[in-house]
Design brief:
The protein contains six helices and 15 strands. It is an alpha/beta fold.
């Protein structure tokens, strides 16, 4: 059998399992809230056009509206000022081979459970590598925090000084880019940065460094607790929106089941 036939057979038999890493889009799913002087991200909205009725007797459909960065979504380099001049930096320009690749999952769930502002540091990455091997070049790195189990106001965790949620330090993101040359970075929170990421230097370092280096981001991921630390393949293809800076998408992972 060919490689693709073998893969299709393995998926059909359950030897390779498909894990959905995507939240369901609905009007109640939280979006990032910026200071009021800035423009705001639009929530998901669905308007019924017809439902087998006088508006359309044999069909049902909806009009959808939302921000590019609503729900489980992809960040392209052009999303951030540091990536605005990156060649092929919009979602419709990215080489499609970049949407499928290996993934490493760093489990920070215990730290995030006890500290809403838990930070992924270089030392945590190196400790993970001591157990699982060096992060390979061009891999996705996902920060598991189990934040996806939260709902509503608890998910954004807004206080008087802004949101509080875990994320990487500037040094950790620089290490992943400069020393490991990753493809992109993903989180279970509403952004690739910590909730208090505006207080780092530079502000929002995950966005600044990732997109300035032509790397990608994934936010609002789900079910990371179902992935192994290594060995999974990630499939994350955004909508092909002309000059789009990001897109909601269906993120899937393939994992090989052990006998």
């Amino acid at each position: 059998m060919t490689t693709l036939t073998t893969l299709a057979t393995a998926i059909a038999s359950g030897t390779v399992r498909v894990i959905d890493l995507t939240h369901t889009l609905d009007p109640d799913f939280p979006v990032m809230i910026l200071p009021p002087e800035f423009g705001q991200c639009a929530r998901f909205r669905m308007e019924e056009v017809s439902a087998y009725d006088e508006r359309g007797p044999a069909w049902k459909w909806h009009n959808l509206s939302m921000s590019e960065h609503t729900g489980t979504h992809f960040d392209a380099p052009s999303h951030w000022i540091s990536g605005r001049d990156i060649p092929n930096g919009a979602v419709d320009e990215i080489d499609v081979k970049n949407f499928i690749g290996p993934v490493c999952v760093i489990d920070c769930s215990q730290g995030a459970k006890s500290d809403d502002d838990f930070e992924l540091t270089v030392s945590i990455i190196q400790e993970w590598e001591a157990d699982h091997g060096q992060i390979p070049k061009d891999a996705w790195v996902l920060m598991r925090t189990d934040w996806s189990h939260k709902r509503g106001a608890e998910y954004l965790n807004m206080r008087e000084d802004g949101a509080h949620s875990p994320g990487p330090t500037p040094e950790a993101i620089q290490f992943l880019i400069d020393q490991r040359d990753i493809r992109g970075f993903g989180t279970e929170t509403v952004g690739t940065d910590a909730g208090q990421g505006s207080h780092y230097s530079p502000p929002y370092p995950a966005h600044f460094y990732l997109h300035g280096a032509g790397k990608f981001g994934l936010q609002c991921l789900n079910n990371l607790d179902q992935l192994p630390p290594v060995g999974a393949i990630l499939m994350a293809a955004p909508l092909k929106v002309k000059n789009g800076t990001g897109s909601p998408l269906r993120v899937l992972a393939l994992i090989e089941e052990t006998p």
